[in-house]
Amino acid sequence: MVRCVVCGREIERGYICGRCASERYQLVSIDPFEIVICSKCGSFRYGRRWKKERFEKVLEDAIYKNLKVMDGFEVKSLTLDLDSRLITLRGDLFGDYVEVTTGFSFKLRKICCPRCSRESGGYYESILQLRCDGRGLRDYEIEAARKIIENVLESESGNEKSFISKIEEKKEGIDFYFGSRDTGRKASRKIARELGGRVVESKKLHTRIDGRDAYRFTYLVKLPSYEEGDVVEKGGRLLLVKSRKSGRGVDIFEGKSVNISGARIVARKGEMRSGVVVNVDERTVEIVSDNGEVFVTDRPCMTEIGSEVLIFEFRGKLMVFPKDL
After folding, report:
1. Domain enclosing residue 208, as ranges
2. What is the mean pLDDT of residues 258-272?
3. Running DSSP on this structure, what letter comes out for residue 222?
4. Residue range 75-113, pLDDT digits in tens
5. Among 11, 17, 259, 324, which residue is least crowded by beta carbons within 10 Å?
6. Nearest-CA neighbor of 309 among 282, 280, 281?
7. For the CA atoms of 92, 94, 96, 99, what is the dihedral angle to 10 degrees?
8. 54 and 145: one domain?
9. Confidence bin at 48 (pLDDT 50/70/90)
10. Same structural domain for residues 88 and 163?
11. CA 126 to CA 185: how far, in whole Å?
């Protein structure tokens, strides 16, 4: 056994005990550091990356990164007081339990991150054009597209180019300008998949960067004219639209599920009248409409006396199908 040269206590090795060493040497230090925050979006810079994070979390990470501990000090626990800018570490030093507290200082620097700089400058790599064949867009279609785009942007939050630099509402539809080509492509495909449309992709040479051609891409999302509950015609068959997303309809005479891709609109749900079947035979039904009109037409599937039907006109003739088809 040897003795501490300061207090004389017996120690297993070395020349000074842990308690005396903690009083004479600087066990812990934190170099002054800088935290960089974007003045526009509030993101913090982590090395070469920018990230949305709580300020307290960013500050803690910076403290731990710049924390220096003397060799031999085995830290068991620590307490961080952000308000007082103090950190207390507890652990073993040369066999003794010691506790040491030190302060830290930092500078908060505000700049504009690359993403916000591009966004404010109107930078874009792709355009998503939302259109509908034969009619204007419905409010619910625009709202659904916006939510899909929001979800895509949220999932791409780590991409510095994943933002919308401009939105243009036009008579024929709405255009979204994206900072990233990938974001525009993903959003267009998801909108087409969810709303039952198709995507037409094109590109245009924009400039040259380091000797390479740089293009801007346009993703035209074309939604079909028909909506669920409408009647369409395809290949001579009259079909009730059941799901625009899956592109399926029901033949009003056969009751079979049919692919409605490329079908032509015949009647819109909101323009149809109601009626009741009052008489049937093998091929025809007699209908009384809600305005008292009586007529006979071809018998659709699933109709019996008393069946409630919807009425539409096709090639100058009144046609019907059951409401519960």
Report:
1. 114-223
2. 93
3. E
4. 888 888 888 889 999 999 888 899 888 898 999 999 988
5. 324
6. 280
7. -50
8. no
9. confident
10. no
11. 8
